[in-house]
Amino acid sequence: MTLHKKLVTLTLCWTMLVIILGAYTRLTDAGLGCPDWPGCYGFLKVPAHPEKVLMAAERFPERPLETHKAWNEMVHRYLAGALGLLIAALFISSVWQHRRLTIIPTALIILVCFQALLGALTVTMGLFPLVVMAHLLFGFGIFCLLALYWLKVHPHWLSREPQLLRLKPLAILAAIVVLMQIALGGWTAANYAALACLDLPLCEAGWSNRLAFAEAFDLHLGHGDYEYGVMSQDARATIHVLHRIGALITFSVVAFYAWRLFKIAQSSLMQRLALAIGATLLLQFTLGVLNIVLHLPLANAVAHNFVGASLLMFVVVSVYQINQQQGRER
């Protein structure tokens, strides 16, 4: 394996770690553990010396230092910064190999720069929900692009089955549905609506009479701090119910797609990919139900976030695999 391939694999694995730790940071309410950026209370690391702790209190009297939350946030920043350096190294290595700019490494370097900006805005805008959701989506986007690049540098993992082209519209639909559901899940989390409904299958009695669509998708501009949410209970319940309905739609569409892919595919590679999509979908649905039944346990909620990213990645990889058949058919 060449150094470039090893670098791609390392960067892909590192991205998984950053996604998991990002979810952990958010779910432990540590998103504002350090109220400034890129440092923490004006320091490169979490202040520990009594003099520095006093300085931190003077700089941010409205947000007292909580050391465990601050370290959660800073470790995430350190790892995210390291990911940025890995992607920069990947970009340079790609240019060195090909003597020109290539699409995916260039897109990755642009995305990671924008992701860093979103990370800064997440803190400086006090967890503004739209920024938090965008930060999640761009993180998942980097993960998916790295998975596609891993395929490009390991071409023996690409399938050669032109008959799969008939699945292209369904594959694209499945990818769009998963992406929309993840965006809705990000909006649910960013507005602290994950436990807005605790009954199954949809919500508590009378939920349909309390739907507040206008407030649920209002940006609620003008607040200095969005930690723990600014929406009413009805608006949060509305978002939560829509996320559950979206989960049922996503399950139906993606399960049908995975079944069709398995039936039409002839190679064990694509059949395994179909099984991976189906298994990940089932796991994600189960984790979502357990989030409600068990009242959002930390480990389960973090897993729900990462498995959602994995589901999107598998579906995007399958779309890419199917799209590659276009050139081969000609």
Helix/strand structural class: mainly alpha
The description of the largest β-sheet is: none
Quaternary structure of the protein: single chain
Mean pLDDT: 94
Q: How many whole angstroms does the radius of gyration measure? A: 21 Å
Distance between the termini: 31 Å
**Low-confidence segments:** none
What global shape is seen? flat
Helix share bin: 55-70%
- Strand content range: under 5%
Compressed to H and E, one letter per element, the order equals: HHHHHHHHHHH
Number of E-state strands: 0
Number of helices: 11
List its traits.
330 residues, single chain, mainly alpha
What does this structure look like?
With 330 residues, the chain is mainly α. Helices cover 70% and strands 0% of the residues. The chain is built from 11 helices and no strands. α5 crosses α10, α6 runs antiparallel to α8 and α6 runs antiparallel to α10.
Brief description of this entry?
This protein is mainly alpha-helical and 330 residues long.
Give a topology summary.
Blueprint lengths: L2 H25 L22 H10 L7 H32 L4 H22 L4 H25 L14 H23 L22 H4 L16 H32 L3 H26 L4 H26 L1 H5 L1
Helix pairs in contact: 1-3, 1-5, 1-10, 3-4, 4-5, 5-6, 5-10, 6-8, 6-10, 8-9, 9-10
